[in-house]
Design brief:
The protein has helices spanning 38-41, 54-69, 94-103, 119-142, 145-158, and strands at 3-7, 10-19, 22-29, 44-50, 76-82, 107-110. It has 172 residues and is an alpha/beta fold. It has a domain at 43-158: 3-Layer(aba) Sandwich (Rossmann fold), CATH 3.40.50.300. Strands 1-2-3 form a three-stranded antiparallel beta sheet. Strands 4-5-6 form a three-stranded parallel beta sheet, sandwiched between helices. The protein starts with a strand and ends in a 14-residue tail after the last helix. 19% of the residues are buried. Mean pLDDT is 78; it is low at 143-154.
Amino acid sequence: MNGMYVTDGETEKTVNVLLNGEETALAFVEGTEHEDDASDTVAACMIVYACDDRTSFDRAVDMLYNLRQKEMRKNVIFLVGNKSDLVRSRCITTEEAKAVAMTYDCKFVETSVVLNVNVDELLVGIVKQLHIRSANYDDDDKSTGCASSSKSLLTKIFKKHNISKSCENLYS
């Protein structure tokens, strides 16, 4: 059930995503009024800019910088370029946005909400990334002490977890 709810003066939009037979409800809260509390309650951040608006892209980059300064390492972060259908008025290239996504270690996708391009892929990608992060941090929480430090170091060196550094692959 998709819908819109108003609680405590904030509008919360929800959408259900079906992945591998499991339904997940994603709740979207717009704005940054409670940015300081976000690291405890928000599992994913989606920073959206318009492909035809340099100012919105610059604000998105500033937001990414601020999120990474707060070391929200457990949070999934997506940089989303909307209005990808406006090819003639585009002022942010895909390559520029990908470079920013790689710099800030987040996923990147371009969408067109009007034409419904990559919207479903984005939502499924968010759920998939949440599952991946949850599994990785559950594994980390199970290990403690010196052995876990060694295991963590060896994992980083030999890349035991198949971690993709591609900012475009939303599913790994």
